[in-house]
Amino acid sequence: MDFADKVTRIVNSIPCGRVTTYGTIATLVAVPRGARLVGGILHQKGSKLAWYRVVNRRGFISTNCWDHPKTLQKALLEQEGIEVSADFMINLEKYGWWGEEKYLGYS
DNA sequence: GGGCTGACCGGGT
DNA sequence: GACCCGGCCAGCC
């Protein structure tokens, strides 16, 4: 299984109403230092994934892409029932999803 | 096949 | 607690 496929599965495994970070996904696919790679995959296949449930470690939306604007991500997250502040920040203590045991074996 | 790039992370200041 | 710096690894020239 390719790295991209693993990332795809993890992103699809994020429960509704929860968010996670690039580093967490990288860890779940057994590449702890590959957080940047996750961003690349999401940029490529993001249109078919729940890319909006993925943020950086500060809980902040880091994309500037025209096709995936921060405003769209905020709207989608609020649609999932997640509170997003006016500065596009998310409370990871409350909505963060750090993976579950059944997802830890994708290496 | 070598080198540059990126929607990032951790640790130190 | 917030900012800066160096390193990481797969993908795409």
Please provide a written account of the structure.
The protein is built from five helices and two strands. It has helices at 3-13, 22-28, 35-45, 70-79, 92-95; strands at residues 20-21, 54-55. Helix 2 crosses helix 3. The model has no long low-confidence stretch (mean pLDDT 87). The structure holds a DNA duplex (13 and 13 nucleotides).
Describe the secondary structure blueprint for this structure.
Layout: H1 3-13, E1 20-21, H2 22-28, H3 35-45, E2 54-55, H4 70-79, H5 92-95
Parallel strand pairs: 1-2
Helix pairs in contact: 2-3
The chain binds a DNA duplex (13 and 13 nucleotides) through residues 2-4, 21-23, 26, 31-44, 46, 51, 54-57, 61-65, 68.
What is the helix fraction of residues, given as a range? 40-55%
What proportion of the residues form beta strands (DSSP E)? under 5%
> Shape, please?
globular
How many H/I helical runs? 5
Structural class: mainly alpha
Biggest sheet overview: 2 strands, parallel
Q: Would you tell me the overall average pLDDT?
A: 87
Task: Give the number of DSSP strands.
Answer: 2
**How are the strands of the biggest sheet laid out side by side?**
1-2
Q: Measured on Cα atoms, how large is the radius of gyration? A: 13 Å
Outline the low-pLDDT stretches.
Answer: none
**What is the rounded distance between the termini?**
9 Å
The helix-strand sequence is HEHHEHH
